[in-house]
């Protein structure tokens, strides 16, 4: 496995080669509402445990909705106390990092310039209705990128996009799917690694992508539908 693919593996992705140049990771279909009795009971128990610590007592707070809590339960294999601990850390991070303010106020005015050195973004939906995120990792030019923005703003932009996906993209894709029992809550990711070499992963680049991975795995868990790595 080449060094860039080793890094992708380190980022928490189980990757393997399929026919041609496509590497695919399939995951459970998250787009069907599995609101079975076990899930309902687990979420109820997690809510009760949070309320005992006076966490989540605002019924209008969408951060405590059923599916958000269920994602943290999935993350911790339905261990109530571990899910609770992870969820509380998630809320603490949101407060310290100012996530709600970023979601409402952050303006990534340099986006067009950034795209020249780091092409990435959402493009349509897959056949199951999931939003599709495409990243041309092999075309990243970190030196040029850091001339038009900063690492800090790139991380904020990443968080802004995660919030936009949760608050807008998933609900819009759910409506577009046109099925009352179908809920979209995951993303299909396509990473194009054409041209990617060891030189593409400098210390700064590794820091940036590991920071993205840490945020995604700790604070936006269970949102990957499947991963396609092309031109590897």
Short note summarizing the structure:
By secondary structure, this protein is α/β, with parallel strands linked by helices. 50% of the residues lie in helices and 12% in strands.
CATH first level of the largest domain: which class? Answer: Alpha Beta
Q: C-alpha Rg, in Å?
A: 18 Å
CATH topology of the largest domain: Phosphatidylinositol Transfer Protein Sec14p
Distance between the termini: 10 Å
Give your account of this protein's structure.
- This protein has 232 residues and is of the alpha/beta class.
- The protein has two domains: 3-30 and 104-230, CRAL-TRIO lipid binding domain (Phosphatidylinositol Transfer Protein Sec14p, 3-Layer(aba) Sandwich), CATH 3.40.525; 37-97, N-terminal domain of phosphatidylinositol transfer protein sec14p (Helicase, Ruva Protein, domain 3).
- It contains nine helices and five strands.
- The longest helix is centred in the last third of the chain and has 27 residues, at 151-177.
- It is globular and about 50 Å long.
- Mean pLDDT is 84; it is low at 1-33.
């Amino acid at each position: 496995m080449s060094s860039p693919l080793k890094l992708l593996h380190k980022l928490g992705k189980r990757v393997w080669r399929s026919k041609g140049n496509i590497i695919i990771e399939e995951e459970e279909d998250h787009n069907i509402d599995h609101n079975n009795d076990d899930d309902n009971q687990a979420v109820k128990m997690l809510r009760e445990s949070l309320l005992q610590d006076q966490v989540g007592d605002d019924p209008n707070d969408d951060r405590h909705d059923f599916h958000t809590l269920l994602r943290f339960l999935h993350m911790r294999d339905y261990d109530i106390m571990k899910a609770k601990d992870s969820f509380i850390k998630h809320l603490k991070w949101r407060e310290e990092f100012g996530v709600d303010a970023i979601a409402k106020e952050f303006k990534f005015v340099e986006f067009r310039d950034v795209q020249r050195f780091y092409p990435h973004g959402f493009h349509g939906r897959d056949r199951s209705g999931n939003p599709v995120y495409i990243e041309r990792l092999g075309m990243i030019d970190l030196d040029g990128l850091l001339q038009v923005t900063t690492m800090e703003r790139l991380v904020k932009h990443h968080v802004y996009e995660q919030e936009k996906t949760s608050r807008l993209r998933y609900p819009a894709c759910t409506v577009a799917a046109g099925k009352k029992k179908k809920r979209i809550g995951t993303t299909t990711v396509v990473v194009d690694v054409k041209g990617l070499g060891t030189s593409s992963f400098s210390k700064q680049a590794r820091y940036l992508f590991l920071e993205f991975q840490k945020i995604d795995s700790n604070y936006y868990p269970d949102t990957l539908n499947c991963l396609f790595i092309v031109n590897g």
